[in-house]
Design goal:
The chain has 248 residues and is an alpha+beta fold. The chain is 51% helix and 21% strand.
Length: 248
């Protein structure tokens, strides 16, 4: 991949719209090319600044009624007002419709943070698979894995050993998700690998699940940490691991 191709893919990459294979190819290019990497960070910073500083307003309760009034069917049912009095109503309806269109466009162009993180977590999982770099420290001993991660990160992630429940700790690696270095715990369940990305998060959140490109993805926040779990393991067993890691 050259710089020009990378430049054209950056917006879709940052919006979480690239498929995992293309994301892995682009991330490999970014890792090797400081110019493209700097362009990516500039675009990411600009996107975050727009998202953080944009004004968000709750839609007024009467918006739905005004939009319905603007529809042709509603206009035929309603008594016709004098032309002089119709102009303000038409203008208001047009303005409301335009505002709604802009809001829908913004929602499409700027996906939720969860969607972006979901794409990045899945890309990291696939990248580790393709590169065979599953773990920087390969160990089933949580007392080996946790100190290693604490020495390489500005926080100390919890490391659970659920081997008694059939989930084997295989090690951990450093990864990069959501613009930060994170811990990636690696677990094994029969022939299935499970990556658990962990980083600090102040607010708790309930367990949520989704499916993307055939992979099951779960996330929650508990005890000052956020967890993103990615695997091809079935949903029920992945739920079991999430509960063992602290999800309620």
């Amino acid at each position: 991949m050259n710089r020009e191709e990378a430049r054209t893919l950056l917006p879709a990459y940052l919006d979480g719209e690239l498929d995992p294979a293309k994301s892995v190819e682009l991330e490999a290019h970014l890792a090797a090319d400081p110019v493209s990497r700097a362009a990516c960070e500039r675009l990411r910073s600009l996107s975050n600044a727009i998202r953080d500083k944009a004004d968000y307003h709750a839609a007024p309760a009467a918006l739905g009624e005004r939009l319905l009034d603007a529809l042709p069917a509603a206009a035929e049912r309603a008594p016709r007002l004098p032309a002089r009095r119709n102009w303000p109503l038409a203008a208001a309806a047009l303005a409301s419709t335009a505002a709604l269109a802009v809001a829908l466009t913004l929602a499409t162009v700027h996906p939720r943070d969860d969607e972006r993180l979901e794409q990045e977590a899945l890309s990291s999982y696939v990248r580790a698979t393709l590169s065979a770099r599953l773990a920087d420290v390969a160990s089933s001993d949580q007392h080996t894995v946790k100190p290693w991660l604490s020495a390489h990160l500005p926080y100390s992630p919890p490391v659970v050993d659920p081997s008694a429940q059939g989930f084997t700790l295989a090690g951990a690696r450093l990864d990069y998700v959501g613009g930060r270095a994170v811990a990636a715990l690696v677990y094994q369940r029969r022939q299935h690998r499970i990556d658990v990305f962990v980083w600090p998060e102040q607010e708790d959140s309930n367990l949520r699940a989704s499916v993307r490109d055939g992979f099951n993805i779960e996330r929650f926040a508990r005890g000052g940490m956020r967890y993103w779990i990615v695997s091809d393991l079935n949903r029920n067993e992945l739920d079991d691991l999430a509960r063992l890691l602290g999800a309620r």
